[in-house]
Amino acid sequence: MGSHNQPPHHQRRRSPPRRLPPPPYPPHLSSSNFYQVARNSRNAKILTTTLVAVQHIYCHGHGPKLKDVWHKWTVHVTGFNILQWSQDVLSGAHTNLLFFNADESRREFKQFQKSSSKSSRSFFSSERKWTNIFLALNILVYIAQVATDGKLLFWGAKINSLINKGQLWRLITSSFLHANIGHLLVNCYSLNSVGPGVEKISGPRRYVVLYLTSAIASSAMSYWLSKAPAVGASGAILGLVGSFAVFVLRHRGMVKGTEGDLRYIANVIVLNMAIGLLNKGIDNWGHLGGLIGGGAVSWLLGPAWKIQSISSEGRRVFADTAPIFSIIQTKRDKS
To answer: Where do the segments described as Disordered lie (predicted)?
Structure first.
């Protein structure tokens, strides 16, 4: 989504710290892979796969019936014809896929895969359960979109005029809808690349809150700053990118080489935004909202591991010092 004063012609989206007993590593990370996940895997490198994958793409490819319905809804709801976006969208999508398949991107992704533990590489690993659930939801919702001739798309898309009428569910449902099969596949590929690593370092509960909050933040910023209707999971995926950036910043004193990771993340974010500015069919405001939302949630909920002490056996004792625990403890002390 971009921000325009008038409706665009072709734009779219889309407490005291808790002490942990030995072993001294986060419960969802083993001692053998804590540093591997945080450093050797250089999860930032998986962000290469998100340069375009996390973009909301405005395209409509469900056939004549859907186009007819979409046309009627557009005229009624927004006053301009979304079908006019198609040409620019297809051009942008082809460019994105060419970049996506570049040799460098494949090499970076393979390096990330090699550095991950066996369990995290397995698609059915419990360590990536929620990533799989979100992937399945995106696919099932898309099947429902096609089965209903696009009615589900119109029921859940981010359409400002209908949100103004109280249809607030659109702020979350729009992130599980996709414009066409290409849009769905690109976002699923990105989620599958970024999600498992972030889920591993965050833990399942934080990961769910992170993903859903990023989705809402993405839609909310797009609602405030863009008039264009939008659908797509890319805002939530960029929230995962923002979360990983916060994780790297927090643990730069514990893990070597984080300066390079941070530079890489910054480059990816800048490139994503630059591509969005150059393509009218991309929702930059939605991307920015998701990125900020994910970073904010990660800052508040953690993890924020710090070495609290060294045991008599020389083992390090970690504590999660995320601000949420201090807030909870303060409220308990007052009550």
So the answer is: 1-29
